[in-house]
Amino acid sequence: MKALVKEKAEPGLWLADVPEPRPGPADVLIRVLRTGICGTDLHIRSWDGWAREAVSTPLVLGHEFVGEVAAVGGEVQTVAVGDLVSGEGHLVCGECRNCLAGRRHLCRGTIGLGVGRDGAFAEYVALPATNVWAHRTPVDLDVAAIFDPFGNAVHTALSFPAVGEDVLITGAGPIGVMAAAVVRHAGARNVVVTDVSEPRLELARKAGASLALNVSTATVADAQRELGLREGFDIGLEMSGRPEAMRDMLDNMTHGGRIAMLGLPAEEFAVDWARIVTSMITVKGIYGREMYETWYAMSVLLEGGLDISPVITGRYDYRDFDAAFDEAASARSGKIILDWTV
């Protein structure tokens, strides 16, 4: 079968013929229809410091996908051939304290699809049935392909009750934009999204942001004044991993404010811990999705009318992967989709 492979320990990707995966008795074989390009995939393509530490070559990339079940193992009863499915890309051990307690998203032995094992940028992918999410109601294929990052947005955005709250989101990448749509749908009063990319800020406006703020020309304090906020933001969603964004967020939170932090910093940085303590601010780290409460919430949000399709800005034949990756790396786009059906 055709697959996008990191064949060599150097920058680049290769479209190659690889063996079709063989599912075990508890596994599901999925014919891939669409995939989404993630920042993780960009790191592996460029072969940066993180990728050199995390990835062993050769490796089939990809963890954002939707497909059709082609075969199931003899022990599988939860999905059937023909089902439309996406997949949870974190494969857990099932044996540690957190897994046994049902907190699988906290498993210390997690293996990432398309990072620690062959992924979904291929004509077929195999997954344990416990990692397969079947779409039981109609869903657009492009949207179903990005359930993984949509789940990051939902997990972060719904970490704290948002009804009637003023929310600050730092970082208008695709996950930040989807988070804006989620908190607006969940009843937030004001949703401010910050970035320095005007194309991405425009996506945030389309997603329902009350104010999309270019912090190269204005400040978060300016946004507070424009919206008439007297005491600061109630909830912060940090999506950028930028030190200055986190510091700005802390400076503009109300006392007792709550921050969910998804953005991964490139290195350690200092924050004003005295302010966190004296303002009694809660900071919660977010990684991945809760299995499978977040997945349930995603499906229900879409059934309830949430539209995240504006975040998808590019669609490519998988054979045009170089152009697709170039657009995804431009910091001007939203989500980029590869079509594996052509």
Automatic annotation (TrEMBL):
Catalytic activity: 2-deoxy-scyllo-inosamine + NAD(+) = 3-amino-2,3-dideoxy-scyllo-inosose + NADH + H(+); 2-deoxy-scyllo-inosamine + NADP(+) = 3-amino-2,3-dideoxy-scyllo-inosose + NADPH + H(+); L-threonine + NAD(+) = (2S)-2-amino-3-oxobutanoate + NADH + H(+)
Binding site for Zn(2+) 1: 38, 63-64
Active site as annotated: 40, 43
Pathway in which the depicted protein is active: Metabolic intermediate biosynthesis; 2-deoxystreptamine biosynthesis; 2-deoxystreptamine from D-glucose 6-phosphate: step 3/4; Amino-acid degradation; L-threonine degradation via oxydo-reductase pathway; glycine from L-threonine: step 1/2
Function: Catalyzes the NAD(+)-dependent oxidation of L-threonine to 2-amino-3-ketobutyrate.
Family from the record: Belongs to the zinc-containing alcohol dehydrogenase family. DOIA dehydrogenase subfamily.
Listed name of the protein: L-threonine 3-dehydrogenase
Source species: Streptomyces oceani
